[in-house]
Amino acid sequence: MKFRKICFFLLLNVVALSGYSQIKNYRDSSEAIPFIRFQYSYLLPSGDFEDTYERANTVGAAIGFKSASNFQFEVEGNFMFGSAIKKIDILQGISNERGDITDSEGELVKLIYDLRGFSIFASVGKLFPLKFANQNSGILTQVGIGYLQHKIFIDYRDGDVFQLNEEMLKGYDRLHSGPALKQFIGYQHFGRKNFYNFYLGLEFQQGFTKNRREYNYDTQSFDLESKFDFLYGFRVGWSIPVRERASEDFYYR
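User: That's the sequence. What structure does it adopt?
Assistant: Structure tokens below.
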């Protein structure tokens, strides 16, 4: 009976030490991790972007790869949206004092102004592990190059407004696009399990855009100058690592 207790105690210690060794090995080693990420950004404007919009939101996804040496490469796409528009007087010439417009049947139509756009980036970065975290988590810095596009989306729920047909809207929507740069600094965490993985930090974007319509109907003037759109704010994302599943088969000789 005493011998069985000793054997059980020894076996328990072997299992505990084995588990501790696995955790320690994970904390002390960096692994190559392909991943998929879903992300959200809240951005404030500066530069020429600030002339038209008060803020912007983006939602998007990325596919990436973190190497064993903690270099990180990724490609991402984001949809931009928002309702804080400054230039709500662009239809002043064809709307009333309250900003409503008359449809083809003489009924008043309420106009809605939104921000619509998108961005795509290819980025490279470096992860700097912290002492309290495992070697796959730490401070992440990134730089990227890509493309930015945005416009004023003018919508109305009811009626048929001749002045706002698809072709006429192009003279008011301020469609801008061009090459862009991106920077990010924040904290990224890859845990032992695939669910508890995230990143968050500060994001900066610089867009070198032009008005693709070239002529604005409301100002009755050409707009051919290059623009500098600067956005900055907070980003958070949830990552899904694509790891090989460890084998759970046991072989006995």
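The chain has one domain: 31-241.
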